[in-house]
Amino acid sequence: MHVEDGNGGYFMEQKQEKFSTIGYIAAALGMCIGTGNVWRFPRICAANGGGAFILAWTIAMLVFAVPLLSTEMAIGKKVRLGCIGSFRDFGGKRYTWMGFFVAAVCFFLMSYYCVLQGYCIKYAVKSVASFETNLTTDTTAAIWTSFTDSPAQVIFFHAIGFALACFIVYQGIAGGIEKFCKVAIPALFAILVGLSIYAVTLKGADQGLQYLFTIKKEYILSPNTWIQAFIQAAWSTGAGWGFIITYSNYVGEDEDVPTSCLIMGLGDNLGAILSGLVVIPAICALSATPEAATEALSQGNFGLTFIYIYQLFTTIPGGRFISFIFFGLLAIAAITSLFSMIEVGVKCVVDMGVARKKAVVAVCFAGFVVGCFSAWSLNNIDNQDWVWGLGLLISGAFIAILAIKYGVEKIRTEEVNAKGAEIHLPKWYFNTCMCIMPVLVVVMVGYWLLQTREWFPDTWLNPFIIQDNTGTVLLQFGAVIVVGLALGKFFNRKTAKGRITKEENCR
Asked: Each residue of 371-415: pLDDT tens digit?
């Protein structure tokens, strides 16, 4: 079948694979039950008051993630294009740059996410090949520093991670992503359940359980808790990443949007809570003193996992095996999430007439090259986590703006609550959440960026310093937006037309 290219010419439409219903949910959960849950959730939860954060994060799931996921799924099913084409056809050519921004956010997340996967692979291998017992935190800190101070080593494991992900995605939707996720996701849940049972039955684990589920007033009243909760909701569910828009290209016409998205949200919640039950009670139970446990839980992005948890594994019977299982779990969780990020870029390239396998290789190679920046130092990867974590909120706001342009109620009645939907999202809930989302994002991101004036009073606007400041966010966001605007006409011309008609768009 030939498809008009938007400039009077035509190119060949490529054969579109399909997910089965189970495969689609497994692949989507593969994104949700990733390191965003296993690695990120426990440390963010611990740093933001435990129970207070869980409450805020649950609300964020309902207000931000579920309506946004439903909208993304509706768009993907309707248009049958990637992010760039979906924004163009759903909103008009003036919105194409927004679709590029969403795809770019996912690409940059992918590029540093694979570095994290490399860390996990390294420690899984180390647990088998060179595991030592009864190490101190000073020793495990030295091991971590020795590894991360060697860019060649980090890039090597970064390359292994991308090679594995590229190989599986290269096999296609049904033969690669779906096939792997159908096995990996049940295995992930099984391992999480087993590790959580082990952790909560340890002597002293009750301190961790109390910390995890006690709601502290001072954290509930802290804006930082809520901002982190919304970022975590986006991070762990994939809301705003564009991957649901992409994956929904490969589902059947009768796929139940609300039910699928609620399963994603609930599955994500379950995976995150199980991860919290693995990490926090274990830290409290195995630490020598309550003070040591508090110190461990207060560690930043990487210290909790690769210094303190690894050290604890060296002090317990069967530690080598448990360490291998834990870091192997992290590696599997990372690769299932990586599939989704790669596919977002691949679909956008395929929409422009490039053969799928060539697109997979090109996107993976580009992601590897860009990811080498994050692999070079911990400061670099921390910067990318900061910038593109905020980028997810902006992406979510852009998708909400697209929905408002098209008609929120129209999306709800015609696409979300379509024939066959077993659950119908109420008008008051869906429409309110989608309409307030852009304002909510502006307030949260604005507040967060202004905080950097207190953190870095002399350099908070300096874009050329690798630190978590406002300047670096504005520089990187600005660069992506400028490129998106500059290439807008090119994308509009080269991207295939989707199934939505001009009449539908303007109705």
From this structure: 999 999 989 998 998 898 889 889 999 999 999 999 999 998 888
**Which of 232, 234, 260, 236 lies closest to 247 in space, CA to CA?**
260
The phi-psi region of residue 420 (left if phi > 0; otherwise alpha if psi is between -120 and 50; otherwise beta) is left
Alpha-carbon span 391 to 98, nearest angstrom = 12
129 burial (CB, 10 Å; 0-12 / 13-18 / 19+) is: exposed
- Name beta bridge partners: 11: 3
Q: In the structure encoding, which two tokens stand for residue 318, read together?
A: 């069967």
**Any idea what DSSP says for residue 10?**
E
Set out the domains of the chain in order of their start, with CATH numbers.
31-494 (1.20.1740)
What are the backbone angles phi and psi of residue 251, rounded to the nearest 5°?
Answer: -110, 165
3-class SS of residue 449: helix
Mean pLDDT of the chain: 83
Q: Is the pLDDT at 79 greater than 80, yes or no?
A: yes
**Cα gap 401→384, rounded to integer Å:** 25
Q: Which tokens in the block code for residue 59?
A: 């609300």
